[in-house]
Design brief:
Radius of gyration: 16 Å
Number of strands: 0
Largest sheet: none
Order of helices and strands: HHH
Low-confidence stretches: none
Structural class: mainly alpha
Distance between the termini: 16 Å
Helix content: over 70%
Mean pLDDT: 95
Length: 80
């Protein structure tokens, strides 16, 4: 059975959608890191932080879904 890490590597090679999701997730992580370096955030920055966190989680969830679908497709192929 393929590990999640190996599937992610395979998807990086074969799926533009996965690569774009991963790149966006890393970009959002960097933006969030910059905001978290500040000791005090303005109300607008707090809203931005929450928005980034939600978007980052959505990207991670979608990547996990793609990994799950790849695993399911591989299991179906192996069963044939």
């Amino acid at each position: 059975m393929l590990t999640e890490s190996l599937i992610a590597d395979l998807l990086r090679q074969s799926s533009l959608e996965f690569r774009e999701l991963e790149e966006s997730h890393h970009r959002l992580d960097a933006e969030l890191g910059e905001l978290q370096k500040r000791h005090v955030l303005t109300p607008q920055e707090e809203l931005l932080k929450k928005q980034i966190q939600k978007e980052k989680l959505a990207k991670k969830d979608k990547m996990a879904e793609l990994i799950r679908l790849y695993r399911e497709n591989e299991a179906r192929s192996a069963a044939r």
